[in-house]
């Protein structure tokens, strides 16, 4: 009989932010697969949990997932945990989960904290639709490329960022998304928890006055522009689809639905631009 794989969320800072169910599962499983066993021991020791552990960090994810799969296939139950939050969300876990799916291993979620959800909930920005993008590329050229590709995204955007890149990233965001509202959360649920809201220049000024350290979540307002400027931005996509063989009406329909624009306005503008 095959074992079960539990995806267990753990606190992102405050050790009290763990569910009763998560504690029960961690006590009952045969093995705990942890991103960093030394880090996770602090949580386990705090709650008096002693179980065999196997380390499961990103650089060894492929090898360790094979080892854990052998244990699951032999009938042992495994709880997968990361250093903080939910495994697989900008943390190791996706490789093991995919292999478990392929082997028809039962996967059971034990939900709990996720830093990006907490940051979004207190950002003051729209929460009905959002896009979580994790960490941006470290290099400036690639980071700017990704940001520019998001300029028309109307949903709230959420990113993680390291302390040594937070100012650089915010500088790039201001150059691409000038004037947008932003909320930056630092060290959520920890002693030095802090959130600042407002235009990027104000946030950067506030961050420079405090110690830049810890983990950051950036919540960025989506594109709220309407009318001519927005249509100008999406016209290249219409013409690109037409070059690939789509008729004008179909190309306009697809693009207008993605960005929430008037089909008639976009269609008329495409005719005018083509004639010009």
Give the helix/strand layout.
Layout: E1 4-8, H1 20-28, E2 31-34, H2 37-46, E3 53-55, H3 61-73, E4 78-81, H4 94-102, E5 106-110, H5 115-121, E6 130-135, H6 140-149, E7 156-161, H7 166-176, E8 181-186, E9 194-199, H8 200-209, E10 216-220, H9 228-243, H10 248-259, H11 263-275
Parallel strand pairs: 1-4, 1-5, 2-3, 2-4, 6-7
Antiparallel strand pairs: 7-10, 8-9, 8-10
What does this entry look like structurally?
- The chain has three domains: 110 residues, 3-Layer(aba) Sandwich (Cobalt-precorrin-4 Transmethylase, domain 1); 105 residues, Tetrapyrrole methylase, C-terminal domain (Methyltransferase, Cobalt-precorrin-4 Transmethylase, Domain 2), CATH 3.30.950.10; 48 residues.
- The chain is of the alpha/beta class and 276 residues long.
- It starts with a strand and ends with a helix.
- The strands form two sheets. The protein has a five-stranded parallel β-sheet, with helices on both faces. It has a five-stranded mixed β-sheet with strand order 6-7-10-8-9, sandwiched between helices.
- The model has no long low-confidence stretch (mean pLDDT 91).
- Helices cover 43% and strands 18% of the residues.
């Amino acid at each position: 009989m095959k074992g079960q794989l539990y995806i267990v969320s753990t606190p992102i800072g405050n050790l009290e932010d763990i569910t009763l169910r998560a504690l029960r599962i961690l006590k009952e499983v045969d093995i705990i697969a942890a991103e960093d066993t030394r880090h996770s021991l602090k949580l386990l020791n705090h709650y008096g949990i002693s179980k065999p552990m196997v380390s499961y960090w990103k650089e060894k994810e492929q090898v360790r997932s094979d080892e854990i799969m052998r244990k699951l296939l032999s009938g042992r139950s495994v709880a997968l945990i990361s250093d903080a939050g939910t495994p697989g969300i900008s943390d190791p876990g996706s490789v093991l989960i995919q292999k478990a799916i392929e082997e028809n291993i039962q996967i059971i979620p034990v939900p709990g904290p996720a830093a990006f959800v907490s940051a979004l909930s207190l950002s003051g920005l729209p929460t009905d639709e959002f896009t979580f993008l994790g960490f941006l590329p470290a290099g400036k050229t690639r980071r700017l490329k990704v940001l520019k590709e998001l300029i028309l995204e109307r949903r709230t955007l959420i990113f993680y960022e390291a302390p040594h890149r937070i100012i650089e990233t915010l500088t790039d965001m201001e150059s691409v998304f000038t004037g947008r509202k932003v909320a930056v959360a630092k060290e959520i649920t920890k002693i030095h928890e802090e959130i600042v809201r407002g235009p990027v220049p104000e946030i950067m000024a506030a961050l420079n006055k405090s110690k830049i350290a810890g983990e950051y979540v950036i919540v960025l307002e989506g594109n709220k522009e309407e009318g001519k400027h927005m249509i100008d931005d999406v016209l290249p996509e219409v013409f690109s689809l037409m070059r690939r063989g789509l008729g004008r009406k179909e190309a306009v329909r697809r693009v207008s639905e993605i960005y929430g624009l008037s089909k008639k306005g976009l269609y008329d503008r495409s005719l005018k631009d083509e004639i010009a």
